[in-house]
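Sample entry (171 residues):
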Amino acid sequence: MEFIKEDQFLKLTDNIDFFKEFTREEKSEMASLYCNVLMFRTGNYIIKQGDVDQALFVLLSGIARVTKRCLTDSEGPGEALLAKLKTGDLFGEISLMTSRPRATSVVAEGDVIALKFEGKMLDKRNPIIANKVRVRLIELLAKRLEEANKLNKELMKKIELLTGAQYPPET
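Predicted structure, serialized as tokens:
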């Protein structure tokens, strides 16, 4: 894990949706005061399943994979690939908000630069920045909830087709 310079950070944030409401001065403050701009190499863990912390990450450049430890049929413990993250994606919001252990791991695929927001630091610095981060988090969570509801409906339709049963069952 390495650090990058503030001017590199500012350039990376120019085309990332998460930062659209932040001024250049606010982004500069984030880079210099209470966020870590970190660089990861291929195979480095950005977050590790089971770790406990309160940090949110924004992927500034590169690709990372989200994995979860699981049991495989014949080979014992393994990892399942859940998603691929790209530039601009956020992750780690559940641990930031709940202080629960990490449910998944995120691993760099190639060189990755990520912004790490330490949850404890959000309230100790500029309240305007903290509020903008919270608004972006609310938007993200609302989007993910919509996606989960849509997927749930699709799965219920498939179950109905396979079983002939209606879900939820009528009472």
